[in-house]
Amino acid sequence: MSSYSSNNLLLFLTKLVEAILYNYNAEEMPVVNETADVYDPIIVTHDIFVRTCCHIDDEREELELILTYNMQWNDSRLQFYDYNGKIPYLQFINSSKIWTPHTYFSNEVDGKFYDILKPNSLIRIYPNGEVKLSGKVSLTLSCPIDFRYFPKHTFECALKIANGNTINELFFKWKKENEIQVTKSLTQRRYSLRKVDADICHVHSMSSTESYTCLRAIFTFDSIDSIYWRHIYKPCAMLLLISFVTLWIYSEHWKSRIFISLISFALFVIKISFTENEIPKRSYSTSHDYWSFWATFLSFFTAVESIIVCSIKYRIMTTGEHVGKHVNVEWTAMKHGRMPELKSEMYARQYQS
């Protein structure tokens, strides 16, 4: 009996949908306020739910998102009788049967809909003609990032929702509450989401006086600089400190002093070279570039200073030993009364030379 009732209900709903779509033209826009001389624009309400932030590409300056978008508008041609609340809404998957806004994401680089098992899009039609369209989509967005204060930097990435119709024909607006919802685990390895703002960004045409509707969801990300402190700046700071410590080593241990200075400088350069692969490459200088330059310069300066000081000390010690030997010879000659003979020998050597 229940199976028979279910089949009858399904047949009834199918007939109801066919009756609603009879003489329905999906290419024509709905008409709002037919009694007025000028039709009112169609109001399309938006809200999105960001499920995952897949990846932030520093080199290409792109953001990958997986989100569910919802659009809602009124189409009086789709009104139907709900039989005292027994039919709260009609639901179907094929969106080509009714008119839908020609919505697109203006800063999209790449995107795809999910249709592995079934198309992840759904349409609900309510008795008063309200239409709700939902879908799941993966987007790659173009997001210019300013790295001048890298690694302690903040950047904004906008999701721009646009339409080809003018504001007089169609108007986008955000839902009054919970217009942008974000999953709590939206954190990357190097970035964390600080806030999300909803904004309106109507576009004015350069060739005419018309304006086009646009919405914008602004994602603000903060860099997680603790990663760079642990893997780059702390090890480099310790190597730089070792380079400065060599300046306090006694000059008598000049071999150890030069060896430690050169090894510290070599390890510092190797560490900086390997970590450059993790740093975004830009045509302008960043805070990291200035730090790397001055830190490398100081490490190089301590190595050169150690070499110069130790070389001067070595020359002084060598000259001192030679003078000391000459004084000892003269003192021995004076002690044994052989000073005149020693001077004669010295004059003879100078004359021969």
From TrEMBL:
Signal peptide bounds: 1-19
Tell me which GO cellular component terms the UniProt record holds.
membrane
Q: Which domain of life is it from?
A: Eukaryota
**Xref: Pfam families:** Neur_chan_LBD (PF02931)
Q: Which UniProt keywords apply?
A: Membrane, Signal, Transmembrane, Transmembrane helix
Domain (Neurotransmitter-gated ion-channel ligand-binding): residue spans on this chain = 14-215
As for subcellular location, the record says:
Membrane
Chief place of localization: membrane
Could you state a single Gene Ontology molecular function term? transmembrane signaling receptor activity
Membrane-crossing residues? Answer: 232-251, 258-274, 294-312
Q: How does it sit in the membrane?
A: Multi-pass membrane protein
- Name of this chain's protein: Glutamate-gated chloride channel-like protein
Give the organism the record lists: Leptotrombidium deliense
